[in-house]
Design goal:
This protein has about 425 residues and is an alpha/beta fold. It has three domains: about 250 residues, Zn peptidases (Aminopeptidase, 3-Layer(aba) Sandwich), CATH 3.40.630; about 90 residues, Glucose Oxidase, domain 1 (3-Layer(bba) Sandwich), CATH 3.50.30; about 70 residues, no CATH class. Helices cover about 30% and strands about 20% of the residues. Helix 1 packs across helix 5, helix 5 packs across helix 9 and helix 10 crosses helix 12.
Length: about 425
Amino acid sequence: MKNEINMSDVWKWAKDLFPINRSLTGKGNLETLKYLKDIDNNLSIKYFSSGKKVFDWTVPDEWNVKSAYLIDSKGKKLCDFEVNNLHLVGYSIGIKTAMDLSELDAYLHYDKNNPDAIPYRTSYYERRWGFCISYNDYKKLIPGEYKVYIDATHFSGKMHYGELLIPGDEQSEILLSTYICHPSMANNELSGPLVSIALARHIKSNKALGRYSYRILFLPETIGAISYIHKHQSILESNVIAGYVLTCVGDDREYSYLPSKYGDTLADKAAQSVIRFIDPNYKKYTFLQRGSDERQYCGPNINLPVCSVMRSKYGTFEEYHTSKDNLSFISENGLLGSIKAYTDILFSLNKNNKFKSTVTCEPMMSKRGLRPTMSGEPGVIINPNLINILVYSDGKNDVFDISDILDLNPLDVISGQDTLISYGLLRE
């Protein structure tokens, strides 16, 4: 299916959004959502209030940071939040104090196995503070007293999220869910909102994607999805026929697939049917290797048809949850590949039906110009798949079943079905 998305726009969005400090709550999340709303004015910015009980969880206090840094005994500023927001442990409390390096050490986080990267650490549900530093910089710290300064506040406020509803010809919905809670990480976060908002633009401009309605969500990971399910469980269970968690869709190393709870939903069928023709060597994971919001959509007493198609899966690349997951790790081609994959999945879902042949036995294709009237006749274009598509269009198989049986790209199955319909050989 033709993709008309302007990738220069998408890359500009990436550069604008990357520096913003996002977390479960706070000004950065609201700023991000307002930016996305400027791209698509139909995006609704909503919120859950701090302290709200959602199943076994409680929506946390709002958290905002003005500045945070360390100053060593020589007056050098270190771990400056303004330079890189990953330096501050997420949800750190405000503090102003001084302490010896030996005492400060307990509040410093680094990764010896990735020595030149700043690790990403959070403490959402227990009040503490800390700084993250590359191990190479940690080794350069000099003994002596350090001034600690964190200007951060926690208060009863709001956890914002975005909801974009696109009506289709049918009430049945396709769910696209992504998250907005990671500061300055390009693949493991920002790529998801970028691809999601690009898909929203594409869906609205393409009638071939208009059969189903769409519910596109921009949530804080985990607590955001839990809160949304808590509020909309009955609607999701009634309307969603297929759903996807969009995360880690920006690099260009590989494609990955993580199934729903049992891997047998329409969403799973569509994802695997499409992705195996984009990347025959795609990496297939199991639900036991889950780690994003598929945990919530397919959680205890929740069994929504939600899976995930990614590029490099979270937790499998060296850059994951570090400062190396920056704009140089993702690419326009990587994002475009993900947009194309999801566009093909959505198109296949919109065109998916069970069809049945209108004729008994094999039809005479030659009298319809679909097969030559003389054996070996040159210059006649024959689609050898038409008869096979017709044979297996027996009212039992949908597009993805036939794709699997014939080892044929679902887009080619759809094209063949369209041809057969046009000649009156196939009906829904």
